[in-house]
Amino acid sequence: MATTGGPHRFLVTGGNGFIGSYIAKALFYKGHYVRIADIKRTSYFNERISNEVLVGNLCDLSFCESAVRSMDTIMHFAATMGGMGAIHEANDFVIYNDNSTMTFNLVHAAVHRGVQRFFYASSACIYPTSLQHHGTNPVSLREHDVWSSGAPNPQGLYGLEKLNSELLLMQFVEKMQIRIARFHNIFGPYGSWVGGHEKAPAAQLRKALAAHMIPSTRHEIEIWGDGKQQRSFLYIDNCVEAILLLLESDCSEPINIGSDCSVTIDDLTKIAVQSAGMDVGDFHFRYMDDSRPVGVHARNSNNEFITKTLNWTPKITSRPMLDGNDMAARTELLSSFKTNKVSRGLEGPEKSLENLRSFAKSLARTTWRDTHELGLVHFQVKIYLGVDADDEFLLRREGNSEILNIESLLSEEGITNVSTEICNVPRGHVCAIWRQCAHRAWKEKADYFFTLIVQHGHVSQGMGCVAFTNVTFPGMPTFPIVHRTHMNAFGSKVIPKVFINQDRDPFLFQLYRKCGCCRMIPSSLSNGIGGSLSARYIQQHADGWTFGLLTEAAMLVLEASLTTSFPAATRKMTLDIIIPSYRVLLPFLDAILALKESPTCETMFIIIIDNPHSPNTTELEAKYAHRPDIRIRVNESNLGASASRNRGMKESAADWILFLDDDITPQDDILIEAEKAIRSNPQAAGFIGNTYFPVASTIFTNAVHLAGVTYFWDIAAKMPQNESDMPWGVTANLIARRVQDGVEFDLQFPKTGGGEDIDFCRKKRDFSVAHGGEGFYPAPHVVATHPWWSDGQRSYWRFYMWSKGDGGLIKLYPNLTYLDHTPNSAELFLISTASTILGAFTYLFTRSSVVFIVSMSLAMATVIANIVHDMYRHLWRDTNRTKALRSSLRGLGWAVAIAESALIRMASEGGRLIGLLERGEIMLIGHRFDWFTGRAGDGPMNEEILNGQQRMALVVLIFGVLCFKFCY
C-alpha cells in the first residue's frame, strides 16, 4: 500500500510531538486524511497539520480503540522519551511501563479494527551497548547487530522496550504490513530544547546562546561526560523523506534512519558556540564526568541497508544555523538554561510537600479562631489524606518513626488530627481517592453544619452543598462540602463511580441546586494546580452526567429526604440563561444580570464571550465573576453565535434553558413569566417568547417591518394562545427543555445567524414528540425588546446573510417545502445576468444589442414589478396587516418605506439563491420553505404562490413595454 496510490486515512500517535508533527504535516499536505492522537492538544506548528486531533492517553485501551477506528494506517510515534536527561536509570520503569502499554494497546486495537499498515518508531537504543563502548574504531551499527552479542543487550529499559515492541509487531506481519524505523538522533526546528528531554544539539546550542546573551556571566559550558562521546545526527527533513520512502516500500524488516557521519560532543559544542556568534576560544568547557548520565561512548548509523533498499541517503549535510531572534527570553530565564535538568517524568515529588505545607499553614491560620477561642461552639479540624499505594516518596518514614513524613509535616504546622488513606487506584483517578477518603470520614461520623440552608430551604438538617469561592476559577463551585446525610442517601458513596477526575464538584453543587440547597460562601481559596488551568493528569470527563445521572441522583437524595422530613417542600425548577456575546455590551448585560427569579426557581446566567480581545471582558468579570449564579466563559477565537450557544448548553445542568441575545432589554418579570409558562406545560419541548422592536420612526425601520424579515420575532402574539406546536422562534428570546437529545445549533449555518434557530426548534420539537412530549408553546408574556441594529442605520447585509443561511433548510426539510413555478426576483435576476453575459458576446460578434437590451429590460421590469406589487399589497389588499405595525411614519414617507421594503425582500431572496448556488443545491432552485411548517395550513403557501404569480404577470407586462420601447 503506497501513500501515492490515493488518499489514505492515517492515525499519527504523538502527532503533536517532534517527528510526529512533521510526518502528520507531510501526509496532510499530500491530501491524506490525518488524525492525531496525543496527550498534548497542539503542535508547535502555527498552521494546520491534520484533519482532527484526539486528546487522550494511549495507555487507556478505550482511547486507543476510538483513535484507531476507521483508520487504515497507524504511525506510532508516541512515547515517553528524550535525551539523556530523560532516558536514564531513574526513569527506566516509568518509561518501560508507559511505552509498552501504549504499543500493546495500539497493536490490540489495530488487529481488532483491521488496520492494514502499522509504522513503528523504534530507536538506536536497541543495539547492544557492548558494541558502543570505548574503542579505537567505533562500530557502525547495522540492523542485524541487535543479535550479534548473543542475548540482546540494549541501552536500559527504554531500549529493551523498543526491541520487545519490534518483536511484538513482527508477530502480526501476516495480519498487517509492518514498517519499523530505528531512529538515530533526529534534530531540527521544534525539537525539545529544554527540560531534560532535549537531544545534544539543542542542549549545547541552548547553553551557548544563553552564555552569549548574558555578558556578565563567565563564558562556560557544561558537557556531560568527557566530550569524547561520538554521535551521528540526522536533520528532520531527511528523516521525513526516509519515513515516507519506507511507507511506500515493501520493506517489513527494521531499518536504520540516521546519519552515518558522526561527531564528538566536544566538536558539537564548538559548532554550537560558533552558531551563537561567538569565538570558541572565549569559552571554557566544564566536563561533568561523574554526576550526569552520558550514555554509550560511540553510536553511528550504518546506512548500507537503507541505501540498497530505499535508495536513500541524507541530503542535508550543512549544519542549520540558529537565528538568535527566535530564542529571545528574559535574562534570568536564560541563566537557568545554562545547565541541564534531569527529568523524572513528573514535577519533582518535593513540590507536593511544599504545596501540602502551604495548605497546612493556610488552614491552621484561617481556622484558628474556630478551633481555639472560648465559647459555646468548638470546631475540630481533621484531615483525610489520600495517597497512591505506590507513592514511595510520600509514604516514607524518617528512621523508626511511626508516622509518615507527610503526617509529621502537618503536625509541624499545627494540624495533628490526620488520617492517611492508602489508595490503590489507577493514576489520575482522583475521584476514586476522594470517594475512599469520604467513606472513611463517613464511617468515623464526621459532621458538618448547614444551619443557614436549613433555615432558608425548609429542609432537614444536613441537606445541601456548600462551596468555597475559588479566586483562580471565579463562579465555579469547587471543593464542595456535604453532610454525612448525603453519604447515607448514597450508601456511603460521596459520588457515583462514573466520575474519574472531572465534574465531581459541579455534580454535587447542581444536585442540591435542584432544591435550592446549595451555597457558595465568601470564604475564598486559591487552587494553584488544575481548575481553569492545566491539570497534573489527563482530564477525563463523565459524559452526560448533567442528564440522567443528575436526575436519578436528585430523585434518590432530594425527593426521598424532602418527602420524609418536609412533605410540603417541592423540588425547585432550574433555569439557565445562556447569552452569547461578541460586543460585550455592558449596559445591556447589566440589565439582564439584574433579573430576579421567583423563590421556586433556581437560575444561573451563562455568558459566552465570542471575542477574546474584547476590551469590556475585564470589566464584566470584575463586576460579576464572583457571583455563583454567573458563569463567564471566553472563546479562544470568534466561533459565532451558534457555537457559543452550544458551549453554553454544555456548561448548563439545568432543567430548562432560556436563550437571550446580548443586546435585548428583557421585561423585569421575564424569569417569573418563563417559570409560569414552563409549569403550565411541563411536557413542552420549549416556549417561544415575544421580542419586540422599538416603534419604527424612519423609512428604513418601517421598510424592515414591511419586508417581513422580523415577522417571527413576536410570533407568540400572532398565533392562537392554545397553540401547542409553534413553528419556531428566534433565539433572541427562546426557552428550550434541556434533555439528552443530542440537539445543538448546526454550525453549517452562517456564524452571523440565519436558519439555525429554525433547525434547532424543529429538531427539539421532533425529538420531544417522538418521545411522548409536545412541541413548542407560545409564551406571549415572556417579553424582551430588541433595538434596531446599528441604531437603525441602513444596511441590507444582515438580511442577505440570514437568507443565505436559511436557504439550507430546503434540503434539510423537504417535507416542509413546496415548489413555486413562478421565479422570484433573485431567480429573474439570475436569468437576466446570464442573458447579459450572452448579450455581451453577441454584441462582440454581431454588433447586435438586442439580447443585451432584453436582459436589461428584464432586470428593470423585475425591480419595478416587485415595488408596484408591494405597493398594491400594503396600501390596498392587506391594509389591516399594515395598520398593525408599530410605526410613527406618515404620508409620502410611508410609500417610500414600502418601496424600500421591496428592495430588502429582494436582497433576502438574492441571499437565499446565492446560498443554494454556493452549496451546489442547484436542483432546489424554485423550492420554498414553509415558514409556518404547516401549522397555518396551506394559507401562507397559497398566498406566497399567488404573490409570485401576480408579480410575474407584472414583470411580463412591464418587460413587454420596455422591450417595445427600446427595440422599436
TrEMBL record:
Residues 577-681 form the Glycosyltransferase 2-like domain. It comes from the Eukaryota. Residues 11-258 form the NAD-dependent epimerase/dehydratase domain. Keywords: Glycosyltransferase, Membrane, Transferase, Transmembrane, Transmembrane helix. Pfam families: Epimerase (PF01370), Glycos_transf_2 (PF00535). SUPFAM superfamilies: NAD(P)-binding Rossmann-fold domains (SSF51735), Nucleotide-diphospho-sugar transferases (SSF53448). InterPro entries: Epimerase_deHydtase (IPR001509), Glyco_trans_2-like (IPR001173), NAD(P)-bd_dom_sf (IPR036291), Nucleotide-diphossugar_trans (IPR029044). One of its GO terms (molecular function) is glycosyltransferase activity. The chain crosses the membrane at residues 851-868. Belongs to the glycosyltransferase 2 family. PANTHER family: GALACTOFURANOSYLTRANSFERASE GLFT2, RHAMNOSYLTRANSFERASE WBBL. This is Glycosyltransferase family 2 protein.
